[in-house]
Amino acid sequence: MQKNMQMLKSKTLLEHKFSLRMKRKYMIFLFIRAIIILSFISFIGFTYYTYGLGNKIILEETIVGKKDYLDIVEYHNLSEKFHAIREEIRNLKQEIHASIVPQHKIKTFQTYIYQNKTGQNLSQEEITPLVISSNVHIFYYPWYKSEIFDGRYGHWNHRMLPNWKVKYERVQPPHKPPDDIGSNFYPKLGPYSSSDPKVLNKHMEQIKYSGAGVLAVSWYPPNLELENEEPVDNIMLKILDSAQNKSLQVTFHIEPFKNRSGENIVKVIKYIIDTYGSHKAFYRTLYNGKLLPLYYLYDSYQISSFEWSKALSHEGQFSLRNSKYDGIFLGLLARQDHMNHLAASNFDGFYTYFAIDGFEYGSTFRNWALISAEAKKLKLIFIPSIGPGYVDTRIRPWNDRNTRKRSNGQYYRAAFLAALEVKPKFLSITSFNEWHEGTQIEPAVPKTFGNYRYEDYLPRSEDFYLRLTQSFVKEFIQQLNNSRQIG
User: Fold this and answer.
1) How far apart are CA 115 and CA 121, in angstroms?
2) For 177, left (φ over 0), alpha (ψ -120 to 50), or beta?
3) Topology with regard to the membrane (predicted)?
4) Residue 118 — very low, low, confident or very high, per pLDDT cuts 50/70/90?
5) Is residue 422 within 8 Å of 384, Cβ to Cβ?
6) In a domain? residue 189
7) Which domain holds residue 426?
8) pLDDT digits (tens, 9 = 90+) for 243-271
9) Percentage of the chain with pLDDT > 90?
C-alpha cells in the first residue's frame, strides 16, 4: 500500500513537471506566434503607408482656386503595377541624385483607389496630390492616321523635307510605318490614329496627369488646309467630348491656311464660335472683365499688320471687337522685330512656341526678361513656350544643328525656370505629341528598326516627362497663388 502511494506520488510529480514543461513550451509558442503576427501586421501597415493600398481615399485637386474631386483612371494593366511602382521608386531616387526636381517637391509614386463624385472607384498610379491648371496650355496635334483605323497612314509616313538653303536636292522617299516612322522617338501607343476614341481617351488621361488643363489643338479651317496637310476639323467634336470627360478644356491653335486675310480670319473665328463655342470644353478665360475665348495664331508675321487690323482693331473693317466673336488673339513672336508687328496688328499678346533655345530671338531663354518687360510696356500678354528638347532629323536630316538634347530632363527644367523667372500668367508647353520635331512629352519606348535605333527616355521611365511636367505645374500654380496674395 505504502509502495503504491509512493509510486502514485512519483507519477503525480512527473505529470506536474511535464505539465509545467508543456505550459512553458506553449507560452513560448504563443509568444513566437504573437511576434510573427505583429511583424506581419507591421509589414501590412508599412505596405499600406508606402504604396497607399487603401480601400477608398478621397483627394481634392486645386485648379487655381477651384476645388473638385479627382476623376482619374488607371494608366497600366493590373499585371504591370508592381513593376511600375518599383521602377518609379528607383527613378525618383535618380531624380533626387540628379537634382532634376527639388527634394522637398518629390513625392513617392503610389497606387491609390480613388472615389469620384458618383462613388465609382477609379485606380491609377499617380503623384500625390495631382494638380491641374487651366493657365497651362499644351500644344496638341490631331493629324495622325493609322492603316488599321483609317485605312492609310498619315503623318507617320512623313516625307523627308528638302533643305530650303539648297537649290537642288534629291527628293527622299517618305517613311514606311509601322516600324519606320517620321520621328526620332517611337510612341508607346505605336503609330496611332488621332481619330481613335481609345487613343483620345488615353491622351486625355495623360494630359490631365501632366497637369496641363488646356489643349491648344493644331487646327485648319475645313477645306482650307495647306498642301500635304491632313483635315482635322472633322474630329474636333471628338476631341472636345474626350477632353470634357476628363475635365479638360480645348482652345484652337490656328495654323496658316489658304487665302489667309483679315476678312477670312473673321469668317474662321465666326465658324469656330458658331460650331464649337457652346461646347462645355471650349476654353474661355477672364480678360479685362470679360470671359473670352483664347486663340493661338501660328506664323502670324506672314500677314501684314494692315490685314490683321481689319479683324483685330476696334475700328477695323471687319472688326471682331466688342461682338460675341471677340476673343484673346495671340500671335507668334519669333524675331525681335515681330513685337512691333504684333502691336500694330492689334494682337492681345503673343507666344514663342519653338522649344529651341537660341533658335530665334523669341525662343531664346535669356531674352525672356527683356521680352516680358517690352510686353508690359505695350500691354501685351506674354506666354513663354517651354519644351523637353528638340530633334527633327528624321524629317529634316540636314537640321541637326538645331537639335537640343533632353539631358534626362535638365533642358526642360532650364526652360521652365527661365519662364518662371518672368512670372507669366499663362504657360504653354511644346508639345504633347509633335513627334516629327521630338518635342513630345507623350510616353515613348525603346525600339530598333534595321540598323536604326530610336531615341528614348532611358534611364528614365516612359512617362517621365508627364511626371516632370506635373511637378512644374505645381510650382507654377504656387507662384500664381503667391502673386495674387501679394497683389
Assistant:
1) 5
2) beta
3) Single-pass type II membrane protein
4) very low
5) yes
6) yes
7) 135-485
8) 999 999 999 999 999 999 999 999 999 99
9) 68
Residue pair 250/214 in contact by the 8 Å Cβ criterion: yes
Angle between helix axes 197-210 and 236-245 (nearest 10 degrees) is: 50
Mean pLDDT of all residues belonging to the chain: 83
CATH number, position 245:
3.20.20.80
Residue 47 three-state SS:
helix
C-alpha cell at 94: 535618380
- Say what the pLDDT of residue 44 is: 56
Residue 402 lies in a domain: yes
Tell me if 204 sits within 8 A of 237, measured CB to CB: no
Q: How many domains does the chain have?
A: 1
Strands (E), 121-269: 121-126, 133-140, 212-219, 249-254
What is the rounded distance in angstroms from the CA atom of residue 403 to the CA atom of residue 176?
Answer: 23
Closest CA to 256 of 293, 218, 217: 218
Element (H, E) at 349: strand 349-351
Give the whole-angstrom CA distance, residue 241 versus residue 263.
Answer: 30
**Has this prediction a pTM greater than 0.85?**
no
d(CA 60, CA 68): 6
pLDDT exceeds cutoff 60 at 68: no
Q: Is residue 357 part of a domain?
A: yes
